[in-house]
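Hi, here's the filled form for the chain we discussed.

Project: internal
Contact: R.S.
Residues: 235
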Amino acid sequence: MGSCMSAETDGEELNSRSSSRGGRRSNAQQSHSTTGKNQPLKHEMPRWKSENPITIGQLASKRDEFWDTAPAFDGRKEIWDALKAAAYACESRDFDLAQAILSGASITLPRGYLTDCYDELGNRYQLPVYVLSHPSNLLREDSEEDNLADGAEEDPGEEVIIKLRLSSGKDLKLTVRNRHTIKQIKQTLAKVENIDGVQRWFYGGKVLQDKLKIEDTKVPKGHMIQVVLPSTEEV
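And the returned structure, exactly as it came back:
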């Protein structure tokens, strides 16, 4: 698993420096040559703190807004798509996959971080930290769906098997009901694997929200759901 960067910085300050729209280039940036300046992707997750604490749902909305709008500005859509896939792989702690994606798209990293990238034409792409990792002051989403914590549904639906890939590297299968929520299954996984802390579930680059039912996730049978486990700092 990757380690955090040693200096904690304010996420909003970093976001302003790396621009929520990304990809804007100055004349100096256009003339930048990445030849001989590429570094391997560092196996580290940026550590940051949001100016105002946010929930995982609010963070997901902010990320969706960025990825939906960034390709409309400077840069090539296929590069933005590759960067999105690499960012998702990094958050799942699969740095080897992220590096393979970057190499396949001929994306270079002058400092080894996704916050500053270049394509083979010299176009610059800047990713804000909020699409790369979670803030240190992320809020737990405890609301009305807590009422479902005991699993008291009249019709839990049919039995299905889901496949999970934990950020620890372990793969496992769970037998659940298709009308159970992600939150309920997180609680089951916590008991089975003795997990204490916030779990983050992803599929197809999207966060699976706690209130979402398995039947509504649209995850095809046999496909893997990525589960990012809490770091030692979050436990």
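Let me know if anything looks off before we file it.
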